[in-house]
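[Help] Beginner question about ligand-bound structures

Sorry if this is basic. My supervisor gave me a protein sequence and a SMILES string for zinc ion and asked me to "get the holo structure". I don't really know what that means in practice or what format the answer should be in. Inputs are pasted below exactly as I got them.
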Amino acid sequence: MAAGAHRRLCVSRLAGPVTGKLTLNPWLVKAPRDCIDYVILHELCHLKEHNHSPRFFKLLDRHMPAWRQRKARLDELAEIILNA
Ligand SMILES: [Zn+2]
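Answer (accepted):
No worries, everyone starts somewhere. Holo just means with the ligand present. The predicted complex, written as structure tokens, is below.
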């Protein structure tokens, strides 16, 4: 994944397994529900895999086979929302 794409995507952040808090960037509330679900799953997968290794994407594939479409939509929306 390109660095720019990941920067846009990682608008969410896990505070860590100690607190179990997941912080979502406020602009995400404007995104469709399936895109938000994808971001949450992305962050949850980072609990197990801390980088974007092939194992990370395998994990995403297992839990959300259509994640690529959701991510593509989110990337498009990010451009529109963040540049508004
Ligand atoms: Zn990530």
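A couple of things worth pointing out: The helical segments are 3-9, 33-48, 54-63, 67-82. The beta strands are 12-16, 21-24. Feel free to follow up in the thread.
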